[in-house]
Structures are given as C-alpha cells and as structure tokens.
Amino acid sequence: MPRKATIHGHVTFTPGDGAPIRIPEGPVELEETHDSVTLAWTADNDTAGSAALPRLQYEQYLKEGKIRLDA
After folding, report:
1. Predicted local confidence at residue 68, as pLDDT
2. Rounded to whole angstroms, how far apart are CA atoms 44 and 70?
3. What is the C-alpha separation between 19 and 50, in angstroms, rounded?
C-alpha cells in the first residue's frame, strides 16, 4: 500500500548515468522495498513522474526534512 508524503526543498534523483533531476515540491506517493523507495508525483502540467531512490538517500532526505511523511 503506497504511503503519502510531501517534498519540501531540493530533492533529486539520478537516472542511470545521467545528471541529477529535481523532483518537484508537493505531494508524492511512496512504494518502499528493502533497498529503495519509489516516488510518484504529478507535475504542474499534469505530467506523471516517478523516481527510485536508494534507501540511504531517501532516509537522508527524511532526516533533513526534505521529504515529510503525511500522518
């Protein structure tokens, strides 16, 4: 079951060997596995986006308050 969260601040993901891409601030849905977390969102132009973050990077964003879990 997906969890809900909100992005606050500068959160990025790196697709393959590419440059980091910023995840837009606002609501996201999270799907967690033991080694990664997938975030899904809808951008301002109604375009869907998703990104997988390594668990360590996700936990760092949580610690910094850049990803805040909804109650």
Report:
1. 97
2. 20
3. 16
Query: Among residues 16, 31, 20, 63, which one has the least CA distance to residue 39?
Result: 31
- CA dist 45 to 1, 17, 18, 66, Å? 26, 26, 23, 22
Nearest to 3 by CA among 44, 24, 48, 33: 33
| Side chain identity, residue 19 | A
The pLDDT of residue 44 is 79
Percent helix / strand / coil, the chain, rounded to 5: 15, 50, 35
Rg (CA), the chain: 11
